[in-house]
Amino acid sequence: MKWNLFNSSIGVALGGGAARGIAHIGVLQAFEEDGVNISYISGTSIGALVASYYAFGKSIEEIKAVGKELNFTSVIGLSLQKKGLFSTRSMEKMIIKDLGEVNIEDANIPLAICATDISTGEQVVLRQGGLAKAVCASTAVPGIFVPVEVGGRTLVDGGISENVPISLLDEMGAGFTIGINLNGHQEYSPPKDIISIMSNAIDIAIDLRTRDQLKTADFALSLNLKRYSRMDNSDQFDDLYNEGYHNAQKQFRKLFWYRKMRIVLYLKKLLLAIAPIKIPNALAWWRS
After folding, report:
1. pLDDT surpasses 80 at 46
2. Per-residue b/e over 241-261, b at no fewer than 16 CB within 10 Å?
């Protein structure tokens, strides 16, 4: 809940989740049908990719067309570097082909992309500069993709620092923030080898941190997508799209109530913040 009651602008944060990101498209479709006007948008990893296409004016149908062709093999390129097995160059070319060599600050909807500096561990918020490089940086999973150099920094997947980038919306000035979490069901496959053990460990660390970060959102939509792959869902595109669409529709009843009751909730928070200070002072004055 933000302190500026009269700021009604809506910010949406699209989280990471690899191939499960198709669900984001369904959520955005539900937003449009409900008449929700998005004033700010942020994204991490696959969320950064979907947010970028939407922020630069691509229609839901156009984004769906991209999503249907998107899978792990279509966005990677074999790398001979020591820092990663694959390159994000193919993804960079795809973004430039679809959107042009644009800068983040040129987006129709103010856009912010979350990445992580692998040398310092710091969160890096990208709001200016080349869009394609920024999205590639945000999706560069360490150890799998070669890190991306942006502005003299070595950047990797933003999920390490903030998988559902709510804080970026706060910094941009959103009055009401909505977080879309693709990893809402915390259940992990029994590990079969060292790779799956490492994968589970990373997922657990990110999910625990995300749980705390989502508490700062005014409204969070957490999806249970455990039955879908992180690698390729092209054969289940419609199912995954509908997971986002129908879940968003159901939750909009809560969102509608929340927005209507916002003034009441705001006053409650204000009273709770003031009461511990004002009431003891008043009692002290009365006793004197």
Report:
1. yes
2. bebbbebbeebbeebeeebee
